[in-house]
Design goal:
Length: about 400
């Protein structure tokens, strides 16, 4: 019976019976042969496995450890890894599409038949046990951490960042990057405000990011303060402002603040500071130079009357939410049921950390993984890597069945 007349059945050695569908999509970073070639390592014979062991002991063990259990930082466990995935990755190293010089050298002169046998051998081994190191404490939710860190700000900037005090800016409706840059400028003294400089002196970069995210995610509302100017006259006077601060005072640039709903007295004070040079910005100094106090108040009244809008900021996913996304392809708790997709359970945390960062930087090429990893923060990568390193790896048996 020819191989094309055979189908693949997956039997999971788990209490739950999860089936394999041959419609799965290969996720290898290397060249993708046809489905028939993909599954050669899953259909290997006991003789193939024995020959693969001989090759692996001579070629792979010095880096990946005896029986595929790595003891080297940044080097993955490959025991019990899915067979077709291993074969595809070995092909990718051989063709140079993965860009790892030691791996390229190790497999450069091996035939594809040899790669199949090595992959089959490692897939036949018992996987690594979960990491017995105490997992690092999960990083705190940044929004809740930001709320806690911002507790001292409410006295001046209002609850939730909505000012009720004239001359004090609202903090809602701003892109987190702008708020961070403003806090950094106060902390460094670039922006002159002794109270703000003192308050921010002990605030770390991480805390600034959390505070900025917290305010960015609050429901926008206008400052609860009066505006002394003529908003209709201010609309005409603000014609040149929209190019940077956006239509209706909603900025499209993280570097430029939104003005909609802002406290009017604060806006007037800011324009005066730009005009005098107390705040350094050549563009704003030039625009403010032509304004008298009446025009400043009118412009401030106009922007104060506008409805602020939420910036483009999203609440970060929890580790559990990220795991749900990863498990869609990599199986429950990282135990892949597709021989072409890698298992993550019990993998070295330092290796997974390295791999996710490689996808983020584009060093490893995969459209799906690039999209998934782009939004991950350093803390989220650490949490995910630690989570999967703690999971129990499950072996799978791939059995070739006669076709109908």
């Amino acid at each position: 019976m020819t191989r094309s007349a055979q189908t693949l059945m997956l039997a999971l050695l788990l209490a739950t019976g999860v089936g394999y569908s041959s419609s799965g999509t290969a996720q290898s970073s290397g060249a993708k042969p046809g489905v028939e070639d993909d599954l050669r390592a899953a259909n290997a014979s006991s003789q193939d496995v024995a020959e693969g062991k001989r090759l692996a002991d001579a070629t792979c063990a010095r880096c990946h450890g005896a029986k595929g259990i790595s003891s080297s930082k940044g080097v993955p466990h490959i025991a019990g890894q899915r067979p077709a995935y291993l074969h595809l990755e070995l092909r990718a190293y051989q063709t140079g599409t993965r860009g790892n010089t030691p791996m390229e050298a190790a497999v450069k002169f091996l035939s594809d038949d040899a790669l199949v046998k090595v992959a089959a051998y490692y897939a036949s081994l018992d996987p690594a046990t979960p990491s017995n190191t105490k997992p690092a404490p999960a990083k705190p939710d940044p929004v809740q951490a930001g709320k806690a860190a911002a507790s001292g700000c409410a006295g001046c900037h209002g609850e939730g960042g909505i000012s009720k005090t004239g001359g004090v800016p609202s903090l809602i409706g701003q892109d987190p990057k702008f708020l961070i840059s403003a806090m950094q400028a106060y902390k460094s003294g670039q922006r002159k405000n002794d109270m703000m400089k003192t308050l921010l002196a002990a605030v770390t970069e991480t805390e600034m990011g959390n505070i900025a995210l917290y305010y960015a995610l609050q429901k926008p509302a206008k400052a609860a303060t009066p505006a002394a100017g003529d908003k209709a006259a201010g609309k005409a006077a603000a014609a040149d402002c929209g190019g940077c601060h956006g239509d209706l005072g909603v900025s499209g640039s993280p570097a430029t603040p939104s003005l909609a709903g802002q406290d009017a007295e604060y806006l007037v004070d800011a324009l005066k500071a730009y005009k005098s040079g107390a705040r350094s910005d050549d563009t704003m100094k030039s625009l403010a130079a032509a304004l008298d106090e009446k025009n400043m108040k009118n412009i401030a009244a106009y922007y104060n009357s506008l409805q602020p809008q939420p910036p483009k900021a999203k609440k970060p996913l929890s580790t559990a939410e990220w795991v749900q996304r990863c498990d869609r392809c990599h199986g429950v708790n990282g135990n892949s049921t597709d021989p072409r997709l890698p298992a993550l359970a019990a993998q070295r945390a330092d290796y997974m950390d390295k791999v996710l960062r490689s996808y983020q930087k584009g060093e490893r090429k995969n459209t799906s993984m690039a999209a998934m990893s782009t939004g991950l923060s350093d803390a989220e990568i650490e949490n995910l890597s630690s989570y999967y390193a703690q999971q129990k790896a499950r072996s799978v048996v791939f059995i070739t069945q006669p076709g109908k």
